Amino acid sequence: MAEMSIKKKRPKNLDLTTIRLPLPGKVSILHRVSGAGLFLCLPVMLWLFSASLESPESYASFQSVAGMLPVKVILAGLLWAFVHHFCAGIRFLLLDMHIGIEKEAAGKSAAVVFAVSIPLTLILWGVLL
């Protein structure tokens, strides 16, 4: 019982600007952020999709709004979030199956997520818009 009351003094680094995450850590955080962003934007995207299908006039107004630069940037961000979340999700499924869990392999698979998600986003952006 006496041993349980002894608190170990551990170093605490509360300055978030000095923390340097390895690439797999960055992929993990971006996977969570992209998933949360997609979840929060889903009602808006469904509403916009529904509004674009109501009539030819509503589709034309949707198209004119989607042509604005700030809206294009937001749509490009959502497209990247979807592609990154998809690619990172496949990586995490493989890690759950104990494939590539070694430190070196995990680093390489994290780099592959970025190497695939960014060009795939650009390809889809060119095809979709």
Automatic annotation (TrEMBL):
Domain of life: Bacteria
A GO molecular-function annotation: electron transfer activity
Compartment list: Membrane
Gene Ontology cellular-component annotations: plasma membrane
Transmembrane portions of the chain: 29-49, 69-94, 106-128
InterPro entries in alphabetical order: SQR/QFR_C/D (IPR034804), Succ_DH_cytb556 (IPR014314), SuccDH_FuR_B_TM-su (IPR000701)
Keyword annotations of the record: Heme, Iron, Membrane, Metal-binding, Transmembrane, Transmembrane helix
Main localization of the protein described in the UniProt heading: membrane
Cofactor note text: The heme is bound between the two transmembrane subunits.
Cofactor: heme
List of residues binding heme: 85
GO aspect biological process, one term: tricarboxylic acid cycle
Job description of the protein: Membrane-anchoring subunit of succinate dehydrogenase (SDH).
Quaternary structure (record): Part of an enzyme complex containing four subunits: a flavoprotein, an iron-sulfur protein, plus two membrane-anchoring proteins, SdhC and SdhD. The complex can form homotrimers.
Listed NCBIfam families: succ_dehyd_cytB (TIGR02970)
Recorded family membership: Belongs to the cytochrome b560 family.
PANTHER family associated with the record: SUCCINATE DEHYDROGENASE CYTOCHROME B560 SUBUNIT (PTHR10978), SUCCINATE DEHYDROGENASE CYTOCHROME B560 SUBUNIT, MITOCHONDRIAL (PTHR10978:SF5)
Protein name: Succinate dehydrogenase cytochrome b556 subunit
Organism the protein comes from: Azonexus hydrophilus
